[in-house]
Structures are given as structure tokens and as C-alpha cells.
Design goal:
1 helix; single chain; 22-stranded mixed β-sheet; 29 strands; mainly beta
Length: 294
Amino acid sequence: IFNGESAEIKTIQDSHFYGNSAGNAPQDPTKTASHGGAITNAGTIETVQNTDFLYNSTTGDGGAIANVGKAGHEAAINLDGVTISENHAGQNGGGIYNNAEGNVTFDGDNSITGNTSGTEDAPKADDLYNAGNITVASGNTEVEALTNITTGSITVGGEGSAATLSVTGSWDNTGTMTVDNLGTLAVDNTVLGDRTNIENYAATVNAGGTYRVDNLGATITTDEVTTLKKLLNEDSDGLLNLGATDIDLDLNDTNLFAHGHYIYSSNGPLTGVINDQSLGYTADVANQTVVKGG
């Protein structure tokens, strides 16, 4: 499907995009690579709902979907309950490619995993490549391999419904990530690697938002908490949720409680630790450890 810059598609629903391809015209191999193995959108697609994208490919960007606006003509697409898997792009975004003039909104439960880009003999994991604006407005969206470049902006929550973006495999981030009210950014601990450059995975977490680190393990140390706090940008006043983890805390570590950060642990040895001797936040999360940045 090609949707032009002035065109509008209302609904694509209960569909299967399987084994489609977009590539160079065989009569002109020097022609610029095509985009969007299943869908190229330069206009508006109001809803793609309950739809699968499997084994699609392109020589250009967006193995399944390429959302490609241009100056003065932004492209917009809403994805609601889609599965995008086993697609391939010769360039960027094996699953989805969103350019600098593109807007992608996720609602419902979406899975974008197992997609690749690059050469066939050396493919790399590449599920969602973002250079524009993405909003996770509701539901749960899982992305295994996320790239958010300098011009890219991703917002989770803030639309009045609970929304979660889960990053489970890798995250290449030089853009911005914001978690608003009712939003949760869930990042698997393996994504953070050895935490040497943990600031690369930081987000601005506003009031009512949560940054959750999954699979940390049974116990972490004070030093680890100090490092993990860097996942919240300094202007954050949301929560850092460390999961069902005990923290071996040094209560005399002033650095741990610097900048108004509070800790609440419902399953560890502490019932609430704060730096000003007054209850700054009470976590209403069963069997979780929560750090509040303020």
C-alpha cells in the first residue's frame, strides 16, 4: 500500500501483510531504493488495527512500514493491536521506519520483535527506527530493538490512559524519551549492559510516570542504586521502579539520597527511606522497590 502525502486512509483492520516486498526496479538498478515493504505512508492512516506484518522486505527503509513525511506534509499513522515480526530492511527499520517528519501513535497491545536490517549475510536486530515523533498512548507496546536518533522524540503516557513501552533487547538512543502521567517505560536490565554509559538510556519521567528496570536480580547494592538513579534525568519527578528487588543500603551514604531522591521498599528490610525525615512518597506497588527522583 502506498498512501500519498495528501491522501487519507480511515481504517485497515483484521488484515495480514505477508511476504510483500519493495525494491529497485529491475530495469533500472541505479534507482533509489524503495521504502515500506508492506505500507509506505506519506499522508494519514487513522488506524491500523488487529493486523499482522510478517516476512515483508524492502531494499530501503521500513521492512514492514515506512512512515515518511516531508517538510510541510507530516505523515501520521496509528497502530492499534499489531504484530510486526520477521521483516527486513536493506537500510533502516526492519519493522518500522519513522522519518523526521513522521508521527506514529501506538494504542492497544503491540509486538514489534524479530525484525532486521542491513545485508542479508550480516543482518542486525532493528525493529523500530525513529527520527520523528512517537507516542505510546495506551496499552502495552513491546519493541525488542529500538533506535531513537538525535531528531527522534518518544513520549509514553500522558493521554489519559495507562501506557507501557517495553524495550527488551537493545536501545540505541541519542534522541529524547519522556514518560508522562500513567506512562511506564520498562527496560530490561540486559539492555543497560555494564552500565558504563547508563546516561544513554535516561528519560525525563514526569509526575505520574514510571521508569521500570526489569530482571535486576534478587539483591542490588547502594552503589548500583546510585548508578541506576542516572536513568532519571535531573528534571524528573516521576518514579524509578526497580522491581521485586532487595536493596542492601548504606543509610549513611549521603550521595544516595542527594537531589531529593526517595526510596520505598515493600519487600526488603526497609519500610521507607527518605532524606528529610518526612514521608516524601508512599509506593502503592506490591512487592516492588521504587525510587523517586525529585
